[in-house]
Specification:
The chain has one domain. The protein has 6 helices and no strands. The protein is flat.
Length: about 170
């Protein structure tokens, strides 16, 4: 029998001057990982359940129909897609520690908020026979304000807080 020398694990020491992923930034990163994973899981679940051909047919049929349900589904898919783009981009720029994250991530979050708001109005318009009214605006206003405040807070955190600035600086 040949004797194989033991392999000692290589431990990389982290530069103490270089900040790690921690605090609020770590929470945002892991949330983005979860959003990305969840958005990737549903098509694979559907494929595993009904097969690839049936999945493609089901998705196309559901999104392209003239019915009210299809119209609402279309308005519901776009914010999910925008959120997925933000989450995937945030995960990538965080893993790569790109300074570009300080600009791109807040812009993509703002884009998600805008797409979501437009789609909320689209759904409300599709459901209301009279079109958009002041009552519809009153019911949409709390969620719109929450999304805008969240996007602005994220933008401010990425642009002003010392944690992201230090982490994304190489």
């Amino acid at each position: 029998m040949s004797a194989v020398p033991p392999v000692s694990p290589v431990r990389r020491t982290r530069d103490p001057a270089r900040p790690g992923l921690k605090g609020v930034l770590a929470l945002i990163f892991w949330s983005a990982c979860g959003i990305t994973a969840a958005q990737l899981a549903w098509p694979f679940t559907l494929i595993a359940t009904i097969g690839p051909e049936a999945t493609a047919s089901a998705v196309v049929d559901a999104l392209s129909g003239p019915s009210l349900q299809s119209e609402i589904l279309r308005f519901g898919v776009f914010p999910q897609l925008a959120l997925f783009v933000w989450a995937a981009a945030f995960v990538i720029v965080t893993v790569m520690r790109l300074r570009l994250a300080l600009v791109v991530a807040p812009l993509l979050m703002g884009l998600w908020a805008l797409v979501s708001i437009v789609c909320q109005f689209g759904i409300r318009n599709a459901l209301s026979p009279d079109g958009l009214t002041a009552d519809a605006l009153a019911t949409l206003l709390p969620s719109i304000l929450a999304q805008v405040v969240g996007a602005v807070a994220f933008w401010a955190y990425m642009r002003q807080a010392p944690g992201p600035a230090a982490f994304f600086t190489r």
